[in-house]
Structures are given as structure tokens and as C-alpha cells.
Amino acid sequence: MSGPLLTVDDLRVTFPTRTGEVQAVRGVSFTLGRERLGIVGESGSGKSQTGRAIMGLTPGHAKITASKLEFDGIDLLRVTPKQRRNLRGKRIGMILQDPKYSLNPVMTIGKQIIETLLAHEKLSRSQARNRALEMLEAVQIRDPERVFGLYPNEVSGGMGQRVMIAMMLICGPEMLIADEPTSALDVTVQLDVLSILDKLVAERGMGLVFISHDLRLVSSFCDRVIVMYAGRIVEELPSADLAQAKHPYTQGLLNCLPTIGTDRHPLPVLERKAEWLA
Amino acid sequence: MKMGKMTDRTALSVRDMVVTFDEYVALDKVSVDVATGESFGIVGESGSGKSTLLRAVAGLNRFEEGTLTVDGRNYKSHGRTKEFYRTVQMVFQDPYGSLHPRQTVDRLLLEPLVIHGFDNIDARIARALDEVGLGAGFRFRYSHQLSGGQRQRIAIARALILEPKILLLDEPTSALDASIQAEILNLLEQARKDRNLTFVMVSHDLGVISHMCERVAVMKNGQIVETVPVEALEKRAFSADYTRQLLVASEGFRRG
């Protein structure tokens, strides 16, 4: 590998509103190689908008500026919509939070996966079908033939999220953005989905951007963590050094979780200081 | 406490409750006793029946068999008296779905007071908002003008405004960010201390349950697997394999 897979430099996402401009992302910079990078923050910290800007899913009325936003040498700010479409799904994949809302409810699971595949590759129907079935097997769905013909409402949340992972990985993307991929799932199912994701990302050597509000989860899953507050990066550190986090916001995020075997009443609450906005 | 024997210290007692939805058995002979002033937790995965149990107690589901005793009175499968709702109130999981979208906060808090014929309505609404840490500035807002945490505070205010003795909490923080969760849990604990409330709290997060509760029932497939004091979680002094699975899951992802 020569340069990094993704370079983000001074990314800003601004939404015009009646009461003036709202800056959701205010100067975010990072690079991603073939590694797992976590982005953590509360609701409204700009973590999802960062992911969406990379994917090209920011609403049309918003303004995106950056001194550099590059994926494998391609300037993402200057690409045509057609080039964007070629990247999306083929080279960059994105897993969204809730399979209930992000899968097409009136299309069978098999058809949706094949649709992604045929949008990017020239294959016959039966070849596409075989690829889809292989992929469903790779995400540890026991009976792929049966699930292939089901509608999204006929499968559980954990199964739905596996389908989503299958759909996103079938074209073999080099980078995957996972936006809260397990927040809508049950605790016991979360671990299964994470280990499937972990295995596939490692096997295929993808770059992963993992977005979540759960700092502990992200740090156990990723190599490196970026902590965001109010549209800015307040701290960046290797997951292993999480205990040595310096910024009070990061420490606050770590401390506010109730854990078994600690007796802290009341729980420490996050302080939000005005000077962190600067 | 002896099984089946009612004492005046029992706030809520469920005996052999069965709930079925068509052929599906959602609750299979579940028995629970919660003492006055206790905080009782229920954990389990989706579909284990934990929410169904709360809803059957609140009268939102019917139950086919079994008995329900709340505050010394017996209640049937369906139909709850006004007095029941003066005693028992519920806070739901999704703060986006449990507040009327076309009513202001003022109207939301007014309705229960009018139904139950309270006096001093104006002062009570102001006090309820204060208690949940939202000032008078929030009184004439609609729920879409509030964040998730603020909405959940309103839902708690709506439950507390009737001065109930028992609060049923169905995953009150699972739709919230970790940082907001801490604030809501602290608020609930403070309210319990101030009013000597009895909590029955459902969650899939063992960390939350062990922080908030004194005893916990583990549910699976519509049955209670075991009931243990929360200290047992820390000491690993429980017997069911399923409890161990939940505990492992709550400790987060491990590679390999």
C-alpha cells in the first residue's frame, strides 16, 4: 500500500436553516488505511454526518467543504454523480443502524442482494444467485436458500443485519462504513453480528470506519478511536490506551456507563463545557 | 417471604401468570413478588416475555390464567380501576413513540391530572417539570421540539405527577445515548428515594439492572429462569447457563 485508503482533511458539513447555518461537522481530519477506525460521540456530535459525507449521502441542500476528501486517489468532492454511483456499493459499502428501516420491505432478500451485485458486475441471473447464496452463507445464515426468498419483515433483527452485511460485502468493497451496526440489536445477538463483521473485515483486508455512541464497544472492536464532540475531534487515541484518555469528555463517556460490581450512586454525568466548542 | 402468602409488605404479586397470543405462549406460568420499596429488575433477550409481563400487569395485555395482586387488591385479566392507575404508572421504552405528537408538554401533563380529579393543577405541572430537571421553558413545547432525553424526562414526569407507589419501567434508557442514560438513571433513583417508590424495571442490559435494582429475575422463552440478588451477578453466584451468556454479552466484544 502506498498512501492511505481514505484521507479526510478539514471536512465541514453545513446545513442552512431559517435561523442561520448549522455546522454539523466542523473541521474533521483523519486518514484511514486498511485498519479499523472507531468514531465515537453523543447524538449530534457529527459522527454520522462524517460517515455520510464520505459515502456521498449528505442531503442536497447541505454544503460540504474540505481541503481534501480523497478515497484511493479519487477526489470525492469533484466526482460526477455517475462516478459516485460506481464507488458506492462497489468500492465503499455502508451498514446502517436498523435493518427494519434500511432494507426494502417489498422486495425479497435475495432480490435485493442480487440488485446490488448486478448494478456493478456483468453476471448471468444464475451466477448472481449463486454469489448471493454464498454470501448469505458467509454471514452464517444457516439456511440461505430459504432466507433468499423471504421478505425483510419475515426475519429477526439479527438476521436482518446479517443480510445487510451480506449485501454490502458482496461486491468486495475496499472500505466499509458501519453506522451503529448493532445498536438496534439485542445484547446476545450483538456479539454474533460483531464477530461476523470482524471476521469478514479481517479476511478481506478492508478498511473499516465504525461509528457508535458506545465507547467501550468501539474500543474493543477497533484499532484506533476518534472521539467527536459538537462536530470536532476532541481526542484520537489507540484503543489499547483508552484508560489513559486525557480529554474530560472522553473520560466522561467512559465513566457514565453503569457496570456490574461497581457501586456509584449517583452515576457520574457528562459535563459539557463551552470551551470545548472552540 | 413465603410463596403465596400475602403480607402488607408486598407491593405487587403475580402468580402463575399465562399470556398467549393466539397459539404462541408469551408468558408461561410466571410468578413474581415485589416488596414495597424494592427495586426489582427483569432481564432477558427480545421475545423472552419481559415486556409482556409488565404490560399484563399494567392491563395493556390480557392474561389467560393466574392472579395479580397489587397493593393488596386483586385484579382480573382485563379492566383496571382508576385507583389502580393512581398506584401504578408506566414509563415506556421509546420516548419518540410514547408522547402525543400534537399535544404540548402542558397538555400531556394536564390530562392525567384531570382524569384523576386533582386540584392545584397549575402548581403540580410546574413542580413536576422542576422535579425532572426541565424548567418552565419546556412547558409549552411540543415533543418534536425536545431531544430523546428530554422526552424521556417528560414521560417520567407524566408518570410521577399522579404520585403513584409503583413504577413500571420498560427499557427506559435503551433508546438513549450512554451519556444521557446516566442522567435518566440518576433522575429515577432520586425520585425513588424521595417518594419511597417501588420499581419494576425491564432491561436487556445487566449493567443497568445491577446499578438500579436489588433483585433480578432472568427470563427466557416466557419463563423465569432464576431470581437472584444483584450481588450474585458480581460474585457469579448464579446457576443458570443463560444468565452466564447474558453476563458475557454485557461485558462487550472479545476477539477470537
Which percent range fits the helix content of chain B?
25-40%
What's the CATH first level of chain B?
Alpha Beta
How many DSSP helices of chain B? 9
CATH topology of chain B: Rossmann fold
Q: Using the CA coordinates, give the radius of gyration of chain B.
A: 18 Å
How many angstroms does the end-to-end distance of chain A come to? 36 Å
- Our estimate of the beta-strand percent of chain A is 15-25%
The main β sheet of chain A shows up as:
6 strands, mixed
* Overall average pLDDT of chain A: 91
- The residue fraction in helices of chain A comes out at 25-40%
Cα(first) to Cα(last) distance of chain B is: 45 Å
Family (chain A): Belongs to the ABC transporter superfamily.
Membrane topology (chain A): Peripheral membrane protein
GO molecular function, one term (chain A): ATP hydrolysis activity
GO cellular component, one term (chain A): plasma membrane
Explain briefly what this protein structure is.
The complex is a heterodimer of chains A (278) and B (256). Chain A is of the alpha/beta class.
Description:
The complex is a heterodimer of chains A (278) and B (256). In chain A, strand 8, helix 8 and strand 9 (207-212) form a beta-alpha-beta unit. Chain A has a single domain (6-258, 267-277), classed as Rossmann fold, CATH 3.40.50. In chain A, the strands form two sheets. Chain A has a six-stranded mixed beta sheet, with helices on both faces. Chain A has ten helices and eleven strands. With 278 residues, chain A is an alpha/beta fold. In chain A, helix 4 (109-120) crosses helix 5. The two termini of chain A are 36 Å apart. In chain B, a hairpin with a 2-residue loop joins strand 9 (215-220) and strand 10 (223-229). In chain B, 35% of the residues lie in helices and 26% in strands. The model of chain B is unreliable at 1-6 (pLDDT under 50). In chain B, the strands form two sheets. In chain B, strands 6-7-8-3-9-10 form a six-stranded mixed beta sheet, sandwiched between helices. In chain B, strands 2-1-4-5 form a four-stranded antiparallel beta sheet, with helices on one face. Chain B has 256 residues and is α/β, with parallel strands linked by helices. The A-B interface holds A 42-43, 156-157, 186-191, 194-195, 198, 213-217, 220-221, 252-253, 256-261, 264-270 and B 45-46, 147-148, 177-183, 185-186, 189-190, 204-208, 210-212, 233-234, 245-250, 252-255.
